[in-house]
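Batch job 17 of 40 flagged for manual review because the log was empty.
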Amino acid sequence: MGEAKRRRAQQTQASGTDGIPPFADPVRRTVEFLCQEALLELQALARNDAAYLAERGGVMPSSESERAERAQELTNIGKALAVASEQGAFDDPVHGPVLLAEHARRLGERYVAMLPMVDEPTHGSSSDGPWSAAQLQSATQIHTRMRQLESAGMTRMEIMAEMYDYMPSFRRLMDTLHHDEFNALCRRFDGLWRYAKLLENLARDIRDGRVEVPR
């Protein structure tokens, strides 16, 4: 891992969970996540990092003019998302998700694929869901660390290395929750969802021979 990335990750970890409310409204959390993802794409465009974009499901424009056009598009849509959020445009439970989906379509297909996080949990005996305090704590820790590492601009393999100590907690969540309960928890904590997708994609790449595992 690059020293600059490591320093950024350590700095964000030292700052704690300030500014990352674990139980925010799902639509608002997804708005925040889309804005962060757009910022990471902008950073990748600025350094012409095609490999980083590919790891996140994106494609690097082939020419400098196309990169500049995509960067301007991301900037404009990101600003529109932020303004709409500040004005409360996403607060309406019916029209909020629809408006968010429109913005995601403008950003691109991979952003649309992130929208399942908006869905409200359909299971659980209370508004807080069926999870124990320990399960919520594990989800919060995984979510927060994933957000910190992604904000530092790390690659998939760098994130996997940094998240190694969180694997036991993730496995306990998988083993102790029903499928629907785990999915609902992922919708509540987008960092947990990102980690689950990261592991899923890595397992698929290993199975398909795109990633070699040392023996």
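Reviewer: the log was empty due to a logging misconfiguration, but the result itself is present. Confidence is low (pLDDT under 50) at residues 11-24, 120-127. Unflagging and moving on to job 18.
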